[in-house]
Specification:
By secondary structure, the protein is mostly helical. The chain has a single domain (3-192), classed as Arp2/3 complex 21 kDa subunit ARPC3 (Orthogonal Bundle), CATH 1.10.1760.20. It has seven helices and two strands. It has a two-stranded antiparallel ribbon. Helix 1 runs antiparallel to helix 2 (44-53). It is globular, with a radius of gyration of 17 Å.
Length: 193
């Protein structure tokens, strides 16, 4: 078992991030309907967990976030494509990689760019992985169904999403990841002194 999952402080942090994820999912703060898609910030706690606690903790929270997404699709779909997220290949599998990718981007860039820029890049990368993998799985599993439900070509829908809310989500994720990571690291440094 990973060290990040044995430490009480880390488990408490994961539980807090899970609680924030649930609150974001259950309130308008986490998923903003925009026509045929939902702009989300629900993935940001997963990104932060991956950056601060490592890839295993990021994977665990990403998996839990995916399960929350699946439950959301079953209990309260908002858009016409939300019911497609009942399939774990679309709702869970892509989310498992958010915190893992965010961690490795942060670690690789930290050596060169240091904390603020590497945390921003990790947030952007985590958000891009979320968007990219979800749409990849939608395409691989449900491309014809998406076209039928939306009445537009899959490429047109993808272009629309990538040029609108995907960019906004990525930038917001980068800013929040940078701010929270810096604050958390500063807090940990004060506690150690």
């Amino acid at each position: 078992m990973s060290r990040s999952l044995k430490d009480t402080k880390n488990l408490t942090f994961i539980a807090l991030m899970l609680a924030i994820t649930i609150v974001l999912d259950l309130t308008p703060l986490g998923a903003v309907p925009l026509g045929s898609i939902s702009a989300t910030v629900v993935h940001i706690p997963t990104i932060i967990t991956g950056v601060l606690l490592g890839p295993v903790a990021g994977w665990v929270l990403g998996t839990l976030m995916g399960l929350i997404s699946l439950i959301h699709a079953v209990t309260r779909p908002v858009t016409v494509i939300d019911p497609l997220f009942i399939n774990p290949l679309v709702s869970v599998l892509p989310r498992m990689m958010i915190g893992v990718v965010a961690y490795y981007v942060y670690r690789m860039l930290y050596k060169v760019l240091k904390a603020p820029a590497s945390a921003f890049a990790a947030g952007v990368a985590g958000s891009a992985v979320n968007t990219g993998l979800v749409f990849l799985m939608l395409y691989l599993v449900y491309a014809q169904e998406v076209v039928k439900r939306l009445g537009i070509a899959f490429k047109a829908m993808l272009l629309s999403v990538l040029t609108t809310n995907a960019i906004a989500e990525a930038v917001l994720a980068g800013i929040l990841t940078m701010a929270i990571t810096l604050a958390y690291n500063k807090y940990r440094k004060i506690i150690r002194e």
